[in-house]
């Protein structure tokens, strides 16, 4: 029996970080996304407090004459640490080079990833706890909560909730729900602007559920309209010496 709680993790459309909103292409992406989402039977909408997420959600909400609840913890994952190479503060979700982060002890394990000594002096654990607590509080509204190593769901349902947010926080939520270190998801997946990731609960033992990923970074709404996906979210393949903390360069992943 499947309890059928469906969670949509929706990344904002192509951003204009200079004004925390959307580019013209991003507005087209948000419009095409809205045409897709209005066909879903979504019970509740949630949104990040950042403008680019709110502006993306607005297209869907306006069509449905609905409102979204703003959840402060849905803002982009901002946990940072001191880069051992440069001494500069870096965001763990996208600023760490592969050769560097893969050498951190325990970073591949969901239970130890944010306790690696490399993150000492930063706020990674604090932001991770905020994400975990926020996710727990949200799911508790629907009778779903952690019960030791598994998730417990009090009553079967068949409904969908939508979270308009960002790549980093989406992968942090997904990692928590599935028991995968978010470092793996941040650095080995990419959800392009306006993409939809879908997670559902599966119940094999009464009232115990597992979260399963049905879609990751789906862009059907763009592909069916002949609209190209945004390149926002990828670093240059060859290191150029550009400061990756500059939002004009690296803001693509936020």
Descriptive notes:
With 254 residues, the protein is of the alpha/beta class. It has a domain at 5-77 and 150-253: Phosphoglycerate mutase-like (Rossmann fold). The chain contains eight helices and twelve strands. The protein has helices at 24-37, 51-64, 98-101, 124-140, 167-178, 182-188, 220-223, 247-250, and strands at residues 5-11, 15-16, 21-22, 42-47, 69-70, 80-82, 89-91, 144-147, 150-153, 159-165, 196-205, 208-218. The protein has an eight-stranded mixed sheet. A hairpin with a 6-residue loop joins strand 6 (80-82) and strand 7 (89-91). Helix 4 crosses helix 5. The longest helix is centred in the middle third of the chain and has 17 residues, at 124-140. The N and C termini lie far apart (37 Å). The relative contact order is 0.21.
What is the arithmetic mean of pLDDT? 90
CATH homologous superfamily grouping of the domain at 5-77 and 150-253: Phosphoglycerate mutase-like
**The CATH architecture of the domain at 5-77 and 150-253:** 3-Layer(aba) Sandwich
Which structural class do the helices and strands define? alpha/beta
DSSP strand tally: 12
Q: From the alpha-carbon coordinates, what is the Rg to the nearest angstrom?
A: 18 Å
Number of helices: 8
* N-to-C SSE string, H for helix and E for strand: EEEHEHEEEHHEEEHHEEHH
Strand content: 15-25%
Low-confidence stretches: 238-254
Query: Strand sequence of the main sheet, in spatial order?
Result: 5-4-10-1-11-12-9-8
* CATH topology tier name of the domain at 5-77 and 150-253: Rossmann fold
The span between the termini is 37 Å
Shape: globular
| Helix fraction bin | 25-40%
Please describe the biggest sheet, giving its number of strands, its sense, and whether it closes into a barrel.
8 strands, mixed
CATH class of the domain at 5-77 and 150-253: Alpha Beta
